[in-house]
Amino acid sequence: MKRRTYLRLLPATAVAGAAGCSSSGDEPDEGDDTDADTDTDTETATTESASTTEPTATPEESLDAAAAALNEASEGIGTQSDAFGEDGESFDESGIRQSITTANDHLDAAEEADLSEDQQADVEDMRNVAAYFSLLTDTMLQLDRGFNEVDVAQSYVDTERFDDGIESLDDARSAFRDASDDLSDAEDAFEALDEGSFERIDGTTYAEVEDSMQMARQLVDMMDPFLTGYREFVRGYERFTVATTALDEERYQTAADEYDTASVRFGDAESAFTDAEEFAPADMQSSVISLTCYAAALADASEHFAEAARALEEGDDQTANEEAEAGQEAASRCDSSPAALAMPAL
């Protein structure tokens, strides 16, 4: 959704006050109650004025104000989604929740009056929209938690704290599963809506919301196999690193075993990334395909490096060099590599 600035259409609140003063600070003469009577009369008149002039919103005004508040909630979701993850920004629910509460308060006020059939239908539509926005916000909060955990995991992997990285990835997967549950509730709420539900909410259409729901579902469904694949990729990365260190230290059998394990892990990552491709939104699909390619390339490369290590164990330098070259070629066969591993030099 495009970002816009909306004025909040809240009922005006009349604030009245009376202040008495005199030209001097002298006490009034005993028995002289002229000023007191005047003050009392003024206060009474002001109170009566406030009670008769304070505006009372009509049902139609309350409905318009509720629609404006829901419009704010919609824009808040859009704005927070646009800024999602930029410069460490998290999804801020506070303004959205307040707008939803405000909308429901206006709907409560509208229902205190006698409503026409059309007005009652509008109230029900907007309550359903408010419920949907609330559930969608729940979903976004879980997505926020999940992506934050992925960022933490990547930081751990970058510093080779692999176990901590795996734990964060498990937390991320849990968050995305919670997001999937919340999104299912939001989808159920959306089913209660029809194309007329958004007529009073300027800037929001049923078709736009439906498209957003579909994209959210694609993202959520993609993340479980994607994180499964990334978890296996990290495990493969860890074993590959251990293997290369063992190779450098001439512990060839250990290196071969670790490369074999890495190959299996990378193969499992490839399989999971392939599953994720099915659900990936269009703007993310190429990135997932690249990871699938890279995981498969590293699985093959690890097999070649394992054979090179075994050849070195047997003193067969020629075979070791041939397998190492094949491993290097396999690892670099994808157009772009999302990560870089330290390749063994033989």
Instruction: Please give the largest β-sheet.
Output: none
Provide a count of the helices. 9
Number of strands: 0
Counting structural domains, the number is 2
- Give the CA-CA distance, first to last residue: 55 Å
Mean pLDDT: 82
Report the order of strands and helices. HHHHHHHHH
Strand content: under 5%
Structural class estimated from helices and strands: mainly alpha
Determine the fraction of residues in helical runs and give it as a percent range.
Answer: over 70%
Rounded radius of gyration (Å)? 33 Å
Shape: rod-shaped
Which consecutive residue ranges, at least 5 long each, have pLDDT under 50?
1-31, 42-55
Produce a short descriptive summary.
The chain has about 350 residues and is mostly helical.
